[in-house]
């Protein structure tokens, strides 16, 4: 999606500006997490009928905060990329959602898939630590 790529590029540009300025709070991923948390509260305030433009605007702030947070985490080699996270999310939720049947078994299915995924994450982590 072109819009997502453009947003990622804009976040990279913003991160470059932050690095150039060197303001400590903007370099701290914990500060960005707190900012996202504050934006979640603003979404709660805007969550009501006939308020789409304001709600979407606040949801944009959460997305933007996430984009910038990923840039900060990339700098420290904590994560690979936006694309890697999005791909991981797609795989994770495809496995969980596509297994559901829309009945009373779903809770158990979700738990089983989640447990299997947890094991696979540990296997992947072990392989990454060997390299």
TrEMBL record:
The lineage of its organism: Bacteria, Pseudomonadati, Campylobacterota, Epsilonproteobacteria, Campylobacterales. It holds the Pfam family MazG. This is NTP pyrophosphohydrolase MazG-like domain-containing protein. It comes from the Bacteria. Residues 33-96 form the NTP pyrophosphohydrolase MazG-like domain. Gene3D superfamilies: MazG-like (1.10.287.1080). It comes from uncultured Sulfurovum sp.
